[in-house]
Structure to design on (386 residues):
């Protein structure tokens, strides 16, 4: 007997392929596909392969172990890893031909030491802080480029890239973007002065790729948009308006369907009350699977083409929805938390009017679609459609 899945994230790889092509046509710069955090919950290796097939020439990850997983899957494309604490296994990175982002002189020194002892050349991308005040060198930039130049002359490292990251790219036209670009230009000038000549300068995330042609440089880093989601629905519009196809459908089984009387208080704390006699559905997925506990009734599930809102608090493994008194739903039916139309015609029908989306879930609990998809937990089986 086979056991059916309780909860599934169905990833339409052809949607990812179309999104990569659409975004590359938009920008005309080569693309780095960002596949950190299990490819935003969509599945690291499958998405990386698809993105490369679609034309992305680079892959980007936060963690070194993500990069090593890609190499173990025999993915040969250049990979940049940008969150590598000083205690990381830089030797493994160098041996596996993984490019390292360098945000400080201390990081650079560690990488140089490993490269020397291996007698190999480490490939690095120097990271400059242009205003986000998170990663990258600030006051240390001059020293960082000088040290890097020395090590490059000695053949210990190759400075492949210089890069930075926008804080407000999802507010196109905001002057802070221009300030960051001008700081980036100054940093590039400092690098040039010491004789560095990096092949690849890069600055753009999805939002900048879509809305800031001045920021393209030699490579654009495609994250959320590659998955078919908008970087910010309020400032940039939704997936459909951006010509993107959401790749992920999320569904779970209805564990139980039953009639309940008006006045029933639902869930822990009895925070919600059923107004009329109705039929409820218990959905077999909860906050341990990434369903936000504080989602309000503007989120829910699509069952038999009916949008059925959440009632009460989400529990660890389950939550309750109002199916409506006349619902024909039965235990064992699929409840769609995100999407509902699987397969190729999704482009036109996938909007928040016809089904719940990562954006409706984000709106229902005061976060962004990024957090909704990246938090889908390991108990949810990933299924791939080509
Ligand atoms: C996550 C990330 C990106 C992708 O950002 P999106 O907004 O998802 O396009 C690009 N660059 C870096 C350094 C990142 O950490």
């Amino acid at each position: 007997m086979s056991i059916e899945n309780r909860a599934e994230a169905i990833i339409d790889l052809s949607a990812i392929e179309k999104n990569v092509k659409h975004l590359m046509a938009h920008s005309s710069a080569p693309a780095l596909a960002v596949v950190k955090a299990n490819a935003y919950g969509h599945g690291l290796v499958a998405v990386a392969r698809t993105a490369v097939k679609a034309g992305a020439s680079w892959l980007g990850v936060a963690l070194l172990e993500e990069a090593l997983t890609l190499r173990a899957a025999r993915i040969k494309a250049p990979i940049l890893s940008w969150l590598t604490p000083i205690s990381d296994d830089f030797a493994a990175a160098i041996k596996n031909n993984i490019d390292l982002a360098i945000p400080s002189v201390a990081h650079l020194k560690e990488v140089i030491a490993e490269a020397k002892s291996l007698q190999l050349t480490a490939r690095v991308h120097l990271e400059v802080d242009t205003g986000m005040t998170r990663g990258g060198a600030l006051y240390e930039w001059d020293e960082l480029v000088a040290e890097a130049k020395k090590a490059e002359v000695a053949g210990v490292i190759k400075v492949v890239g210089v890069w930075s990251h926008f804080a407000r790219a999802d507010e196109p036209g905001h002057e802070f973007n221009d300030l960051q670009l001008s700081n980036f230009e100054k940093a590039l000038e400092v690098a040039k002065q010491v004789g560095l000549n990096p092949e690849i300068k890069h600055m753009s995330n999805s939002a900048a790729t879509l809305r800031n042609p001045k920021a393209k440089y030699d490579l654009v880093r495609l994250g959320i948009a590659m998955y078919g989601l908008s970087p910010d629905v309020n400032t940039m519009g939704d997936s459909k308006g951006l010509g993107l196809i959401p790749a992920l459908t999320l569904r779970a089984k209805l564990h139980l369907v039953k009639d309940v009387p008006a006045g029933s208080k639902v869930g822990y704390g009895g925070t919600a009350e059923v107004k009329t006699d109705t039929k409820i559905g218990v959905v077999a997925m909860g906050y341990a699977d990434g369903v936000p506990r504080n989602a309000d009734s503007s989120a829910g599930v699509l069952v038999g083409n009916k949008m059925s809102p959440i009632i009460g608090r989400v529990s660890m493994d389950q939550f309750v929805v109002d199916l409506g008194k006349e619902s024909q739903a039965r235990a064992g039916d699929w409840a769609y938390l995100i999407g509902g139309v699987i397969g190729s015609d999704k482009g036109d029908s996938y909007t928040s009017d016809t089904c719940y989306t990562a954006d409706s879930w984000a709106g229902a609990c005061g976060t962004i679609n990024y957090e909704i998809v990246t938090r889908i937990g390991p108990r949810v089986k990933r299924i791939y459609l080509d």
Observations:
- Residues 248-367 form a domain with the Lyase, Ornithine Decarboxylase; Chain A, domain 1 fold (CATH 2.40.37.10).
- The chain has two domains: 13-230, 248-367.
- The chain has 13 helices and 18 strands.
